[in-house]
Amino acid sequence: MSGAREFNLDADEEMQDFFSAIADELQKFGISRAEAVARVNDAWAGQTFSPYPDIACHESPEHWAYDFYYGEPVPYWDPNADRSKWRATPPPPADSDAWTLPREQ
After folding, report:
1. Is the dihedral of CA 15, 64, 80, 91 positive or negative?
2. How far apart are CA 36 and CA 91, in angstroms?
3. Alpha helices (H) in the chain, listed in sequence order
């Protein structure tokens, strides 16, 4: 499928690569690529990004992954943080435009 992109966000190719790096980090939580991409698309739906490096790049892909997975900032960098209360947010609804990749069973 020529010209298709994982991310339905209005951004240049370098920013698309940045989004991909966030999805890579999200997959470390054990979710599928499809869900990782959907979480990025959902979190930034409707936003327009400047050419790379957009201001979003002031935070690392790891930072955004934790934010998009847990729905709020968590002190992931702190080895003494109490992770027992961290709860993942649900993925975007099944009928959301955020899902651009086929979901795995």
Report:
1. negative
2. 9
3. 13-27, 33-43, 61-70
In one letter, which amino acid is 94? A
The pTM of this model reads 0.94
CA atoms within 13 A on the CB side of 14: 8
Per DSSP, the three-state class of 36 is helix
pLDDT tens-digit readout, 19-57:
999 999 999 999 999 999 999 999 999 999 999 999 999
Q: Which two tokens stand for residue 51?
A: 């050419």
Round to whole Å and give the CA distance between 82 and 91. 23
Say if CB 6 and CB 101 are below 8 A apart. Answer: yes
Q: Report the distance separating Cα 70 and Cα 14, nearest Å.
A: 26
The whole-angstrom separation of Cα 2 and Cα 31 is 26
Residue in 70, 15, 14 with CA at minimum distance from that of residue 43: 70
